[in-house]
Design a protein that fits this description.
mainly alpha, single chain, 5 helices, about 70% helix
Length: about 130
C-alpha cells in the first residue's frame, strides 16, 4: 500500500492540478522517479508541517494540515511554500504534478503497482 506520505501528497498536490483518470500503468522509469520524489519530499513535508504546528501552537494536527480550511495567514504561507517546493521537486525529477497524482491514485487501486513502488523506494533508500 502507498505510505501515508503518498496519500498526503495526493491530497496536497491535487489542489494544484486535477489528475486525469484511466491512465496506463507507469513505466519502470516513472516508478523510479516517483519513488525518489516521495523519499525526497518527506523531509520537506515534515519540516513544513512542524513549522505550521509551531505557528498554530499545537502538535495535534492532521498530516494533511494544509488541506484544512480557514487556516491563519502565516500557516497558509507555510503551506504555499510547501506546495511550491513540492511542485518544483516533482518537475525537477521529470514528472508533472498530474503524473505524480495519477501514479498515487493508481497505486491505491493496484496492489502490484503499490508493491513495485515500495520496492523502488527501498532501492532508492539504499542510495541515500
Amino acid at each position: 500500500m502507498p505510505t501515508r506520505l503518498t496519500l498526503t501528497l495526493l491530497l496536497l498536490l491535487t489542489c494544484l492540478h486535477r489528475p486525469a483518470w484511466g491512465q496506463a500503468t507507469p513505466s519502470d522509469d516513472r516508478i523510479q522517479r516517483y519513488a525518489l520524489i516521495v523519499l525526497e519530499l518527506e523531509p520537506i513535508r515534515q519540516a513544513h508541517l512542524e513549522e505550521a504546528r509551531r505557528l498554530l501552537g499545537t502538535v495535534n494536527t492532521s498530516g494533511n494540515l494544509c488541506g484544512e480550511r480557514n487556516l491563519p495567514t502565516p500557516v497558509q504561507t507555510v503551506c504555499s511554500r510547501y506546495f511550491e517546493k513540492s511542485q518544483r521537486l516533482v518537475e525537477q525529477r521529470g514528472l508533472t504534478i498530474q503524473e505524480f497524482n495519477i501514479i498515487t491514485t493508481q497505486a491505491q487501486q493496484d496492489p502490484n503497482l503499490s508493491k513495485r513502488i515500495q520496492e523502488a523506494m527501498l532501492r532508492q533508500r539504499k542510495g541515500f
